[in-house]
Predict the 3D structure of the following.
Amino acid sequence: MTNREQVNKIMDENINQIQILLEQKSQIWLDHVLFTEYWWLGVALSIFPWIIWFIYRKKESSDRLLYAGFFVIAISLMLEVTGAQLGFWHYRYSVIPILPSFFPWDVALMPVTIMFFLQIKPKTSPTLKAILFALLTSYVAEPFFTWLGIYEPKSWRYSYSVPLQMFIYFTAHFLSKRSFFDPIHSIGRKNSAPIK
């Protein structure tokens, strides 16, 4: 057996083990999590922040805020998955069993909170807002979800989250201020009318 074949075999065995564990996790979720009060809380936290944002958003800035919000979703999911895979923390009572992250946090609570921070008092110092956001998420939200038994930090301390949360806020703020967007034109037709 060549070295490459041996590596392929080892990697395939590892993937098979992961698949077995994911099937076990899905079965545990079906038997013990689905339709519990914590699952319903997760569903509500995935939907209601967006409804509230839709009602109270600054309508003329919706596109700009969503641009920043979708960045927050992407970076939050990447960091959450990385942290969970490295064993820094894990979540119980997932809304979706195969995700190693807490879906409501990454796709609703984080982006919607940041979008509200961006639109409320837009002239306030972004540094002040980043610090406030980081302190609230790190020392209020994370301990609250730990207290509920949903979030379980292992080798992670709440204070480790502060610079990450500040980075996420600063980047979202930066993106929300961008205005260098050209209209999209048909390919190969530089002078044609923009696509609407």
About this structure: The chain has six helices and two strands. Strands lie at 89-91, 151-153.
